[in-house]
């Protein structure tokens, strides 16, 4: 398989990684007019904090020293308002490094409130560990994978999500975004070759079929976009006109896209390897080999989807067991039905990617020579 290895490409790749990783929190938030700054907690006042079992309501008064920004070194006092939602609320203690929203006027902090624990440093450390392991093990391929990883995040954050928020068609945006991501990711990792073309075409065909199934069975199962996390909060934040059902459909296809690319690339690369080792293989034999590889890959990948989606709702399943919920009621429960729908549609799409890629590879990799049978 011929790979694209121009030095210019790798220079641009490294420059892209550096550019996408470089981020500065400059200027105030455009909505609140407040700066988000790191601060160290000096003391806390819990007089207004009320504990109700595992939930807490009321609030804390936080005294902290700012660690950055125009008001660096100044001491501020801010509130930490609690809502009684343990998954959202945070309790701060002296010595914690936190993120504070601070209004600065003439170089002085005039208003502040606590936001979250500051986790960005350790997140970057974990990301750095991931990068080191990836580059040590995969080397040049790891660098390409890192580029596709960061570029994919950038496309989702700067194009896909803003497009959804502006009222664009979620289905159309999903098609455009996944087409772009598929080309960027597969080309970045595999270079420019016939194998790349096969993998891209196989992925997009499989995802297109998954999209058709999503729209059809989504209507039959009476799915609702409000099953997605934070959907209610999004609506009441002012986005009343968003089509949350189509956004839910978009999330189903987007969630299966990575595994689809993986399967398409595995099948295409394996078939190309078979063709390199046995140049006289017939098209039918090559396609049959692709089918065999696809069966092995999809067998584990569909289970991977099931475990990935189920893990996000582990506590919900534990609650069902605790309450002795019947299996029938559980299957018809709104959130469970949504996850079953997501898992099965994604799995069907993955299963379809393998044979489609094998057939495409049989014709593209073998060219247009006549199909010959052994003994002809």
TrEMBL record:
PANTHER family: MEMBRANE PROTEIN, MEMBRANE PROTEIN-RELATED. The chain crosses the membrane at residues 6-23, 122-140, 172-192, 198-217, 224-242, 248-275, 296-320, 340-368. It holds the Pfam family YibE_F. This is YibE/F family protein. Keywords: Membrane, Transmembrane, Transmembrane helix. It comes from the Bacteria. InterPro entries: YibE_F. It comes from Maridesulfovibrio hydrothermalis AM13 = DSM 14728.
